[in-house]
Design goal:
The protein is α+β, with helices and mostly antiparallel strands. It has one domain: 3-Layer(bba) Sandwich (Phenylalanyl-tRNA Synthetase, Chain B, domain 3), CATH 3.50.40. Helices cover about 35% and strands about 20% of the residues. The chain has six helices and ten strands. A four-stranded mixed beta sheet has the order 1-4-7-8. The protein is globular and about 40 Å long.
């Protein structure tokens, strides 16, 4: 799998760095052990951070800034990393989807990055290109229906868009039958060390809770 950052995206966000994990795994409806880790993490997270802390999180603020440079309102089309952190710090229960999605959500909260999680076998072709959404470009967000992605960063495969920081596409979503995961960490803050650390954290979670060897880590 090759991931390319387009000149259009790079011009608006020159500091962008990315890291991805491509791994085989076994999905499950629920992992008690994973959720014990999630709850422990959230307990400690809420003791040291408040909702106001979001303003101080570089990963979140950089993603919001990227949206604004591209002409998108980050409060209306909230990046998923920010939405998850807000939910956690508001003391709300996190959504329980399945083990693959749940562990990606944990990594997103831990590092503040918006992370795309895809069924790699549903991706068309062997190349993803990160560009910018166009007016009228068709896109169906997971659980959201048609989504206006004009001005949003978007990963496209040979068929079209599959992922934005706000929502991934229904076409390539992870399901219980998924056996190969592609997780992409979007570092709009330009911090390669933290972006890669987040990807390695995903690898560790896959090993611990999804019967995976952690797969391959890629930087771009």
């Amino acid at each position: 799998m090759q991931i390319i950052v387009s000149a259009e995206l790079r011009a608006a966000c020159p500091q962008f760095v990315g890291a991805a994990v491509l791994a085989s795994f076994e999905n499950s409806v629920h992992s008690d052990a994973l959720w014990q880790e999630i709850e422990r993490f959230l307990d400690s997270y809420r003791q040291i951070l408040t909702i106001d802390s979001i303003k101080e999180m570089p990963a979140i603020q950089a993603t919001r800034a990227a949206y604004k440079r591209l002409g998108k309102d980050p409060s209306r089309y909230r990046p998923s990393g920010e939405a998850l952190v807000r939910r956690a710090l508001q003391g709300k229960e996190l959504y329980q989807i399945d083990t693959a999605v749940d562990l990606i959500n944990l990594a997103s909260i831990a590092y503040g990055y918006s992370i795309g999680g895809f069924d790699a076998d549903k991706i068309q072709g062997d190349t993803l290109t990160l560009g910018v959404g166009r007016e009228g470009e068709p896109y169906e967000g997971i659980g959201r229906g048609p989504l206006n992605i004009a001005g949003l960063p978007v990963y496209r495969d040979a068929e079209g868009g599959i992922g934005t920081p706000t929502s991934d596409h229904e076409r390539t979503k992870l399901e219980l039958t998924s056996r190969r995961l592609l997780a992409i960490v979007n570092g709009y803050d330009g911090n390669r060390e933290q972006t890669v650390a987040c990807a390695r954290y995903i690898q560790r979670l896959l090993i611990d809770y999804a019967q995976s060897d952690g797969g391959q880590l890629m930087e771009f």
